[in-house]
Amino acid sequence: MALGDWRLTLKVGVRPVRVWTWSEFQALPQTEQVVDIHCVTTWSKFDTRWRGVTLDTLLQAAGLEAPTPWVLAHSQDGYSTNVPLADLTQGRAMIATHYDDRPLAPEHGGPARLLVPHLYFWKSAKWVNALQFNERDEAGFWELRGYHMRGDPFKEERYG
């Protein structure tokens, strides 16, 4: 995807609240995190370095304060995954644009992916283009196919 075509939309329900272009998104304060990531298929990768914009920064920039308890992340390719808002705030998650000091490669979700490192990696949606804030917990792609609604690797929350 050409960076000039990329957009990130925040929605409350189906109503768009804020849309960022790539250049607007890049102008937001950036954060760097070194975190471990865990795949549901039992592999882990330790001390991975990411850079991007935290969900706290996005909420503040959009003038939103915890609008709903649930978020459904949407991707360019139609993928979606649900995450409790509490798992996305307080610096716990970001929209990542860089990995190991390099722009995120398309095969790894570039130009931007959701990064929720304390949950299984299927929650870190590649090619993210929208975050939809919902009153109810709505299952995403893998959750509809039997995966756990939260996906905490330290509680072995693989399947629902």
Structure, explained:
The chain is mostly beta strands and 160 residues long. The chain has a single domain (3-147), classed as Sulfite Oxidase, Chain A, domain 2. The protein contains 2 helices and 10 strands, in the order ββαββαββββββ. Strands 2-1-10-5-6 form a 5-stranded mixed beta sheet. Strands 3, 4, 7, 8 and 9 form a 5-stranded antiparallel beta sheet that branches. A hairpin with a 2-residue loop joins β7 (94-99) and β8. The chain is globular and about 40 Å long. It starts with 6 loop residues before the first strand and ends in a 26-residue tail after the last strand. The relative contact order is 0.21. The mean pLDDT is 96.
How many DSSP E strands?
10
Helix/strand order: EEHEEHEEEEEE
The CATH topology corresponds to Sulfite Oxidase, Chain A, domain 2
Task: Give the name of the CATH architecture.
Answer: Alpha-Beta Complex
SS element count, helices: 2
Could you estimate the helical fraction of the residues in percent? under 10%
Global Rg = 14 Å
- The CATH first-level class comes to Alpha Beta
| Structural class estimated from helices and strands | mainly beta
How is the largest sheet built, in terms of strand order?
Answer: 2-1-10-5-6
As a percent range, the share of strand residues is 35-45%
Number of domains: 1
Mean pLDDT across all amino acids: 96
Q: Main beta sheet: strand number and arrangement?
A: 5 strands, mixed
Give the terminus-to-terminus CA distance.
34 Å
> Which segments are poorly predicted (pLDDT under 50) over 5 or more consecutive residues?
none
CATH superfamily: Oxidoreductase, molybdopterin-binding domain
Global geometry: globular
